[in-house]
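Proteins fold reproducibly. Next comes a concrete instance:

***
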Amino acid sequence: MKNRIIEIKDFYAPELDVYARLTEAQLLNKDRPQDGMFIAESPKVIGRALDAGYEPISFLVEQRQMEGEAKPILDRCPDIPVYTAEFDVLTQLTGYKLTRGMLCAMRRKPLPEVRDICRGAGRVAVLENVMNPTNVGAIIRSAAALNMDAVLLTPGCSNPLYRRAARVSMGTVFQIPWTFLEEKETGIWPDEGMKYLKELGFRTASMALHDESVDIDDRRLREAEKLAVILGTEGEGLCDGTIALSDYTVKIPMAHGVDSLNVAAASAVTFWELGRKTAGQE
């Protein structure tokens, strides 16, 4: 069956509501998570979501891309509605110029349990209250590329399937396992959540500037069979309780009087150094 192609000429057409007028909170739909959606941007990100088994609901494609970069994706989904419009209509969408001519509304999946995605994992990243979706996306991209096995997020973090987070991650949110540290499974973070990680066999390493910090190349970190690397929110960093409960507090040595790195930049350095054991590069 050919794609159902529907041309949109008016930015306020109801078919564009999911793309243009629903907030991230409305798409997430916490009251009815089974109806939750997200918007994937660009053919690469959409393709990786499809590869991971996410179900498309509809596409929004710039007309000139119908036979361009969008075509291979559309060919994979012949029964899904395709809304198409000229560039001047679509540029009224926030951030549209960054999408490479294609958006897709997709259904969310139920989140896996922490225990399930940590089974067999040697290195996991834990994000504590990282609220900027750009940073969440960048950290997940680094985690996927630099030998982390999974990403865990406290409830105060931005959702990895928010549009900006998924876009910045270049679709790696669909390539590395991730989930939230939900209270019903892991207890309240950090007291019960940290205990839960240790019950799963992880040593915990908090990234923080602290008087008792060890350098990131400390051999005990490299030699830990299972290590959870914890990174904190922008600006304030990790809460004192998390640091106090950690097996190690870890710092990245700085030069030229610089006191710290952005959390996304720090994550890349950290994952490279602490993930090398997983890659067998010692």
User: Anything to note?
Assistant: The chain has a mean pLDDT of 90. The radius of gyration is 21 Å. Residues 53 and 174 are 9 Å apart (CA to CA). The longest strand covers residues 56-62.
